[in-house]
# Entry
Amino acid sequence: MTKFIKDFFMKFKIRGWKYKTLIIFLAVLYAGIISISFIKIPYELTSPNKITNVESIISVAGDETNADINTVSVLVTDKPSIMHYLISLMDKNIEKTPYSENTSYYTTSESNERGVWTKKQSIQDAIIWAFDYAAEKGYDVTLTDKYVGVCITGSPSYKLNNGPESLKIGDIVTKIGDTNVTDMNIFRQFVEDVHSTYGTVAAEEIPSIEIIRDEETITLTNCDADILNYLGNVSIYYNQQNSLVSEEYFYDAYTITYAECVPEITINTINSIGPSAGFIHALYVYTQITQSTILNDKYIVGTGTINNEGMVGEIGGLMQKLKTADVYNTQYFFVPKGNIEYIIDGYTDITDVEEQDQMIEDKVNELELEFGLTIIPISNVGDAIMYLEGLGD
# Structure
């Protein structure tokens, strides 16, 4: 190798200026390509990705229906290379958003951990809603579940001192002072109270908090007030907006004994993170445990978060998910109504319900023409069931 380099430079010295100019140009070009392939820039890229059949994630014993029902995902890249970003400029279907470490609430590892827990939440709430709704409709089903406490999923490190007394992502709050946490409203009221008195109450006046962390019960005697204040502020804000987003920061956690449910549920490979498939999981489980045929011979893709009351919440990357559904030649695409409302200019300025409905219909028609899909905006899982029942088998 050394001899090769020496020979190269000896020949380089005696070559003419055209040869030398070409070599220098190629060397600079090569160095430039290498540089822009590794240097990161502060952007987030959201790209169309793929659809996944729900049966690969959840299966129901005795399922003999002919259903093709799928979740849809996007690919998010934080701080891409310059090369990656330049290539993305050639694709209008990739969303480019400025990214800043100073404004990002979560580190990359925290975002991934959050995604894991919110995925657990979406599957849990989808199954709970499906069984509860089926039982209300008179079906002979049994859900074997037990309430555990409130699971924390919104606990960014920039709000924490990172000490052992801080609430962390994945912690399950089971007791506040002498009060057992039997539903989310108890925890919600607690953090909202902390928020209302934040800065005026000494840390030692905050009640102790009992949690489950890594399957071990721990008591936080001086819990970090910053994170409690943060969660209280989140709770108040999103409740005022009548949004489900607050449930992406903390939620009611249950243990479900899947093998004892009737019919039996099996959780298969979970190969994605985040809560946006909750709605489609709920729709699938409900139709299977009730042996409904409304999905038969239909090619369905859907997106939307869910809570255990069946309400469907907004998701990110809507346009990229629509494009993904288009690429896969989707027949019916279910989308949260809130996402459609959000992309309508002037929607929030309108108070007349009929006018709002017309604006939504117009926007849906526009998107259907753009993507070649039948798009169904929904507020809850019941909306989707009613729509599919109207189509017939």
